[in-house]
Design a protein that fits this description.
heterodimer; A: mainly beta; 7-stranded mixed sheet; B: mainly beta; 6-stranded mixed sheet; globular
Chain lengths: ~110, ~110
């Protein structure tokens, strides 16, 4: 199908390493969102892109986290110097129109930091 | 601080036994309230958007309603395939989305 895809599906890394998580949104969707879901916790909003711009980066947990989006399409979430508390499922979603409306989620990337 | 609280955390129903899930919120200037369904190992699947108090939406056995402080997801005559975690989210004026921790629903045949 033509849904949101994320890669890798699983990532195991050692504490202190950098990781990159990729999201391919639905074609034509202008808005893209990143969330983090920890065990027993609700989805935590991280960042939102309208086109290639991120109007609000305040949801990123620390300066070790960064995200970019290129060509109004693919987005990469980078976590530098990973810590064990970064272990979670990272979910990406896209929507046709930014700022509101129905979001379509990808299957997520499960990140485990040893 | 904006908060979304869902109750109960878990709910077990017999097939055909109707019930309601609750989502209460404290965000000011709500831009929208969203219900999602999440199956294990998958991303959330959109169900409904509600924008103003008094609004109702229906889809098969599900009906969502909204007041100024809470939303209900009513499940009528549930079936085992309705078993999932149901998530509520609110959109603040800042365009940030706040999710609740969900209600895990199990429907027993």
């Amino acid at each position: 199908g033509a849904g949101v895809s994320q890669s890798p599906s699983n990532k195991v890394t050692e504490k202190g390493k950098d990781v990159e998580l990729r999201c391919d949104p639905i074609s034509g969707h202008t808005a893209l969102y990143w969330y983090r879901q920890s065990l027993g916790q609700g989805l935590e909003f991280l960042i939102y892109f309208q086109g290639n711009s991120a109007p609000d980066k305040s949801g990123l947990p620390s300066d070790r986290f960064s995200a970019e989006r290129t060509g109004g399409s693919v987005s990469t979430l980078t976590i530098q110097r990973t810590q064990q508390e970064d272990s979670a499922v990272y979910l990406c979603a896209s929507s046709l129109v930014g700022g509101f409306g129905e979001q379509f989620f990808g299957p997520g990337t499960r990140l485990t930091v040893l | 601080e904006d908060q979304v609280t869902q109750s109960p955390e878990a709910l077990r129903l017999q097939e055909g036994e109707s019930s309601s899930l609750n989502c209460s919120y404290t965000v000011s200037g709500l831009r929208g309230l969203f219900w999602y369904r999440q199956d294990p190992g998958k991303g959330p699947e959109f169900l409904f958007t509600l924008y103003s108090a008094g609004e109702e939406k229906e889809k098969e056995r599900l009906k969502a309603t909204l007041t100024k402080k809470e939303s209900f997801l009513h499940i009528t005559a549930p079936k085992p395939e309705d078993s999932a975690t149901y998530l509520c989210a609110v959109q603040a004026p800042s365009n940030q989305f706040y999710f609740g921790t969900g209600t895990s629903l199990t429907v027993i045949p």
